[in-house]
TrEMBL record:
This is Membrane protein YkoI. Residues 1-25 form the signal peptide. It comes from the Bacteria. Keywords: Signal. Residues 66-121, 146-194 form the PepSY domain. It comes from Streptomyces achromogenes. The lineage of its organism: Bacteria, Bacillati, Actinomycetota, Actinomycetes, Kitasatosporales.
Amino acid sequence: MKRKLVTAVAAASVLLGGGAAVAFADGASSTGAAQAPAAEARTAARAGDADKATTASKTGAKAGVTEAIAAALAHTPGTAVSADREDDGQGAGTWQVDVVKADGAEYAVTVSPDTGKVLGAHRDTDDDGDDDGRADLAALKGTTVDAREAVRAVAAKGTVSDVDLDDDAGAGVWSVDTAGGGEWLVDARTGKVTQDLDD
């Protein structure tokens, strides 16, 4: 194929007196295959920037809160109603994600902050009989913003350390804590973020 192209350019050069062939060859090289690697390089650079942005948004561990929630839901399907880092006991430092199944059963799923893998899960027994799981599902009925989206909505305010369905703020409101003490409320219907001035 290349040999035919060179022959055609040489023939055109002879017929047109040389100058046009150079212009044709230059035009072919500037609009043809030479651009493909440049376009691929730009695409790769954009992908690299996206990877850097994803890495920067994490909580300093390899698995941030959104990754922990995703892992927990893949392991125990349902609705994530809270996620936070355990600060004491044998599981200190791990993520605990509370998941409610459609029947109201509550599960605590433990996720490694280093690997993002589920370390264990167990059903939470409701000692006081107040059926928190069903109440959480009722509070989220008709909403569109889940726990991960609430975290993403607040991510620009600081590193998210905790997300929880807030019973005190009213139905369908997420409470999101950031490192350094900033606390934010995210409306689960609209995604609107406001600072939690009460805390």
